Amino acid sequence: MHPPAHAERHAQQVSVVATRGNPHAAGTPASHPDPDAPDLPPAILQSWQRCLAQPGLDPFRPRAPEVLDAGRLRERGEPLASLLRLAESELGLLLESFSGSGYAVILTDADGVILRHRCDPTLARELRTAGLRPGADWGEARVGTNGIGTCIVEGRPVTVHREDHFLRQNIGLTCSAAPIRDPQGRLLGILDLSCCAPDHSRAGQALARALVSRSANILENQHFLGQFRDQRVLRCHPRPEGIGLPQESLIESELFGYRAGAFTGASREGRRGRIAEASGGTLFLDEIADMPPAMQSRLLRVLETQEVVPLGAGQALRVELNIIAASHQDLAQLVVEGRFREDLFYRLNGITLHLTPLRLRGDLEAIVLKVLEAENDTGQALDVTPAAMAALLAFAWPGNIRQLRNVIRTAVALCEEGRIQVEHLNLPRLHRTAAPLTTPQVGTGSAAGALKAAELEVVRECLGRHQWNISRTAATLGMSRNTLYRKIHRYGLAPG
User: Fold this and answer.
1) What is the reported pTM?
2) Count of domains observed in the chain
3) pLDDT level of residue 369 (50, 70, 90 thresholds)
4) Phi, psi of 396 (to 5 degrees)
5) DSSP, res 311
6) Rounded CA gap, 87 and 262, in Å?
7) Rounded CA gap, 6 and 125, in Å?
8) Domain boundary among 165, 199, 233
9) Does 305 lie in the same domain as 424?
10) CA distance 469 to 392
11) What one-character-per-residue DSSP string does 207-227 give?
């Protein structure tokens, strides 16, 4: 049964559209709006126009959707077997997001025939009475304006809320649906969230439409990867965290764990997750500033409740957890910019330790040698020429220890005869040094200039120490006599 006010408003809206056409159609004077025009989105009004032109589709006469028998339904599902397998866990996760809200999660084929259906068992009878059941045809031509059928026609996510439905019998429903496409852009099916609850507002459907669209996108990506499993896939995204499988999901599964079969590619045994594994101890989270907003919310909930719910699981696990978080960014500034949750920031911010930048460390030379020892996988002893060490000590190291390790790792791979020289160092020209050296012969406005200045000082000092003995100087610097002569000429050096 529908409240009389809703039924009356629906009848009035249908009457206006039937007698006056679409008041939002092209050519309608914007300065003379129709005072009786239905307060409906343009896509809904266009759908009503299509329904009014459909023979035998009476908005006030009950019309049950056609329901396929088990055999025909099985035939419908066979071409979509891979998509149906992928959808099993996603339907469950989507339904879990709306647990207790009276929603059903529905997957249809490209014609609007329901192939899969998930709902709270207590709502099964009510939704079945509304016609939301496997095998039911919810195409627009069959049952008028509705989330599934109108999404098929529009080819984009839509929400059909209560009196938006063309048939009076459906005005108690609220539906948000999104299309699922194959790699060629053809429609595979529709993912839909429907409920019979009378207290859901139109504005409140923004979240439902956003989540159903996200889940549809996840299924599209998984189906794409399944179709091209034997091919190399190049992924592009404006942000690094967007590259790969749903980054439902990979990061969350690593941190929060998942139950067996929670998503495609999941281990049969499931995974406890880093949080559960660290229970009773301390978990170190590096680069916390890069954590996506949704995961920030989940982490805050874990810290507040001391409970974690693995992906695809319904039961929470009790944990005892201490957190150490690190970031190279200013978290307080990110809070001001709205890029990091303020409540999570204060929850984590017990004691703050600021680490000295690598460029300001007084023991930088010892650190370089320690990193070289750790990264040396050649099986032989390696040393660093004075010129190369001077360049390493003069560099600003904006990437700190990670950058140093990468530079040393590359130098180890490039060096010959057991000596790392200046030409083996991959030092970018993007940053100024902390204390650039000055000399008339060399510009120092960049890291490259400072590197040359450092090399000049080392060559000059070594030549003076050996009283300009070219052979001894070249041997000390780890270069040939010809190379040393070229550097003498380049820097305009002379005895005395």
Assistant:
1) 0.50
2) 3
3) very high
4) -80, -25
5) B
6) 11
7) 23
8) 233
9) no
10) 26
11) HHHHHHHHHHHHHHHHHHHHH
